[in-house]
Design goal:
This protein has 482 residues and is an alpha/beta fold. It contains 14 helices and 14 strands. Strands 1, 2, 3, 4, 5, 6, 7, 8, 9, 10, 11, 12, 13 and 14 form a 14-stranded mixed beta sheet that branches. Helix 1 packs antiparallel against helix 12, helix 3 runs parallel beside helix 7 and helix 7 crosses helix 12.
Length: 482
């Protein structure tokens, strides 16, 4: 009997060694193939030249959906399908900003934020609301009511430890304070204007909101600080129509645990001021290339890999909310073991995770092994920081563990997101290649794990969100689950 136990133990140990060795060989083979692959960059370059922006509901957005569907199919994925959802598609028309001082008028360049009124002309005194946080509105008190609030998009001269809010959350606070309109001030020099939604849920807001260049915002603040009484007349004409948009989905079926799904997604849509090359062509076209390469390998993952390109992210996570609601209704969400989100990711240095006990150690261990493949390019970092306002949020709020690459694309990229300079010249092909290499390596690691930790419990999720100071922002947006 003792000899039989030793023999059984030896077989188990030998099998584990074989599995580890096989996994190492597989990882090296995939990395070698991915290291010479820049197909995603070529597809993105073609899209920016021939399709342009990918605004949900626009003709360009529909062309991008069709392109993604075709590329998944051409890559030979096991299953390719679309998940349609209804959305209100806002599109900008004209905007005009006139500043008066009682003696004359000054016309300033601005861009309307999305989901602002379809037709309006509002004139109101300008009041400096600083960073537009709750404490700023408390400081100006009744002066906010009926005023045009001048608000920083980023944080300027804020106390250490102050956390910024999304522009839509600042808009919600301004609405509650009774503001007549909002002028957001960009913090990127060079006359760069930034767009984005002013609405948390995709519905039209009742007051106009627009973005000014940092230079014009500084000028207005200097005049206000000298005691000048300034008014702003903000006029705009926009359109909105009910449309059917489509999330594009493809699957690579698992060989051992096909019922367990690892979902990797990113948003395909972009704003209309440029071509959305970094936000989020960088992530979504990396996913297309990742799917192509994983399908081409002679080995397949043990768990099912589901690739999802979301539409409507920029208007309020519309596509991912719709998909998660669909999954929740048909119990599909229970099969999704984790969601990996690629939003403006490139040259990953590691991975962050938001999950219950077990996920941190699993991701840290995987990062250690991935780093051995290329210690120069991948640093093996891991993090447990969680954040909002991207397509992982609806999954997280349902308790699904979320994972994201840790990337630093540089100020030249982050200064152009949502702006007219977000074009292909900002994209480094190697950044996309490394997305494929290291996200692919993580997918194989997760797929091969003996077991994966579970979802958040309701109590565990509530505690984690509160630890991350996300209760306030989620309450502002009406997304706090309790």
């Amino acid at each position: 009997m003792l000899m039989l136990r030793w023999a059984a133990a030896l077989c188990i140990c030998q099998q584990q060694v074989v599995d580890v060795e096989a996994q190492s060989v597989r990882a090296k083979a995939f990395d070698a193939a991915a290291s010479v692959s820049e197909q995603g960059y070529e597809w993105l370059a073609w899209s920016t030249a021939h399709i342009g922006h990918r605004l949900t509901g626009s003709e360009q957005g529909r062309k991008a959906e069709a392109m993604a569907d075709s590329l998944f199919r051409a890559s030979g994925l096991d299953t390719v399908y679309t998940h349609p959802f209804e959305a209100d598609a806002w599109a900008r028309g004209s905007v005009k900003l006139t500043v008066g001082d009682g003696k004359g008028f000054l016309h300033l360049t601005c861009v309307a934020l999305a989901n602002t009124p379809l037709a309006c002309s509002v004139e109101a005194p300008i009041v400096d609301a600083g960073n537009g946080l709750a404490e700023d509105l408390l400081r100006i008190g009744p002066a906010a009511k009926g005023a045009t609030l001048l608000v920083n998009l980023g944080l300027v001269a804020a106390a250490e430890g102050t956390k910024n809010l999304h522009r839509s959350e600042k808009t919600a606070l301004a609405l509650k304070a009774g503001a007549a309109s909002i002028l957001f001030v960009n913090q990127v020099s060079g006359g760069v204007l930034l767009t984005g939604t002013a609405s948390i849920d995709g519905a039209l807001i009742p007051i106009p909101a627009a973005c000014l260049a940092t230079e014009d915002g500084t000028m207005l603040r200097e005049r206000l600080s000298k005691g000048e009484n300034l008014t702003a007349r903000l006029e705009m004409r926009n359109t909105s129509e009910r449309v059917t948009a489509r999330n594009i989905v493809a699957e690579l079926r698992g060989t051992k645990h096909p019922g367990e799904v690892i979902l990797v997604g990113g948003h395909l849509d972009s704003w209309d001021l440029a071509t959305g090359a970094t936000d989020n062509g960088l992530g979504s076209f990396s996913i297309l290339d990742l799917a192509r390469l994983m399908q081409s390998m002679p080995f397949k993952p043990e768990r099912t890999i589901r690739f999802v390109l979301f539409m409507g992210e920029e208007q309020g996570l519309l596509g991912s909310r719709a998909l998660v609601d669909h999954y929740a209704r048909n119990s599909e969400l229970d099969r999704v073991r984790c969601m990996i989100n690629l939003d403006m990711s490139g040259n990953p240095q590691g991975f962050g995770v938001g999950g219950p006990v077990g996920w941190k150690a699993l991701i840290a261990d995987a990062c250690d092994r991935i780093a051995r493949i290329d210690t120069a390019a991948f640093k093996g970092r891991s993090s447990e920081q969680i954040w909002l306002h991207s397509d992982h949020q609806p999954f997280l709020l349902k308790g699904v563990p979320v994972i994201y690459p840790l990337s630093d694309l540089g100020k030249h990229v982050y200064g152009c997101y949502h702006s007219s300079c977000d074009d292909i010249h900002l994209v480094e092909p190697r950044a996309m290649t490394n997305n494929v290499r290291f996200v692919g390596a993580l997918l194989y690691e997760l797929a091969a794990a003996t077991t994966l930790p579970g979802h958040f419990t309701e109590a565990g999720l509530r505690e984690r969100l509160m630890e991350a100071d996300l209760e306030g922002p989620l309450r502002i947006g009406g997304d706090w689950p309790w």
